[in-house]
Structure prediction request, 366 residues.
Amino acid sequence: MQQLQLWLLRIPDSNEDDQRRGRIIIVLALLMSGLALLSIPLVFAVTPQLAFTLLLINVTGVLVYTIVIVLCRTGWVQAGGLLFIITVTTLTMTILFLAERDDPTRYATPFFLVFTILITGMILPPAWTWFALFLNTTGLLAGWWTTGQLLFFKQPEGTLQIAALFLQVGSALFTFVGGSVTNAALREARRLREEARQSANQLAALNATLEAQVAQRTAALQQALRDLEQRAAEQARLLAENEQQRQVIRELSVPVLPVRTTTLVMPLIGALDTARLADMQRQALAQIEHTGARELLIDVTGVPVIDTQVAKGVIQLVEAARLMGTHVTLVGIRPEVAQTLVTLGIDLRGIRTFSTLQAALNSEKR
Prediction:
C-alpha cells in the first residue's frame, strides 16, 4: 500500500513547487472521485427525478479527475490543475441550471464556488487565482442571466447575489496574498536549504583535509597569539598615554594662570558639569597651595549658564580657598546670568564680583 502511494504521488518534474502542487492535485482528485462515487446512492434516494443527470455528472467528474491524475503523473502539473479547477467550477455551476426557480440551492450555489478559488491557491501559482475569480464571476453572471436570476435590484435575492460576488473577490484577494507569502517563504526556505547543503559540502571538503592542516593552523595560531600579546601591550601603552593626555586636557579645560605674584586667574569657558566643577576645584586648590596666592579671580564670562549646581560648586571653592587664606573674586557675570542667579535665590553676598577681568585687576592695584 505504501509503495502504491509513493508511486501514485511521484511527479516527474525537477521543480519542487510543481512536485508539491502535483501531489496536492492528485490527492484532491482522488477525494473528489471518492465523493462523487459515494454520492451516487444519495442522489437516487434524495432527488430521483434528477438521478440520471446527476449520475452522468458524477461519472463525468470521475473520468475528468482520472485524466487530471494522469496529467500530473506525466509531469503536466499546471495543465492538470487548470483542468481540475475548470471541472469543479463547471460541475458546481450546473446546479444553477438544474435547480428549480424557487429552490434555495440556486442562491446557495455561488457561495460554494469560493472553494474553487481556495483550491486554486493550493494547486496553482498565485496569479492563477484571478483566473479562477474570472471563471467564477463570468459563470455566475452567465448562469443568472440565462436562467432569469439576474436580480441585483430585487430583495433579498439581489443582496445574496451581490454578497456572493463580494465573497468571490475577497476570497481571491486573500488567497492571492496568502499564496504569494507562502511562495516567498518556500523560496527562502529552498535558498537556505541550498546554502546549508553547500555549507555541508564545504565542511566535508574541509574535514577531508583537516588532519594535514592541523600543524599549519597550530603554528599560525601560536603566531597570532604572539601578535595579539604584542598588540595588547601596545594597546596598554596607548591607553596609558591616552589617560595622560586626558589628564592634560582636563587641566587645560580649567586653567589656572598666574597674573601676579599673589594673584591667579581661572578663565572658564563652556558649560560646567559635575566633572568639570570637580576639576575646577582640584586645579584651583592645587595652584593655590603651589603658588601661595592670596587672590583668585574666577572669570565666568565664557560660561553660558550658571545654575544652582554651578553656583554651589563655586561657593564650595570660595569656602575652601578662604580656609587656605585666599580671597576669591567672581568676574564676568552677564546680565542674564545675574538675573538667573537672583531668580534661583542663590546668595553670593560673601563673594566679590566684577563685571570684567580688567576691572578686578585694577581694583587690586588700588
About this structure: The first strand starts at residue 257 and ends at 260.
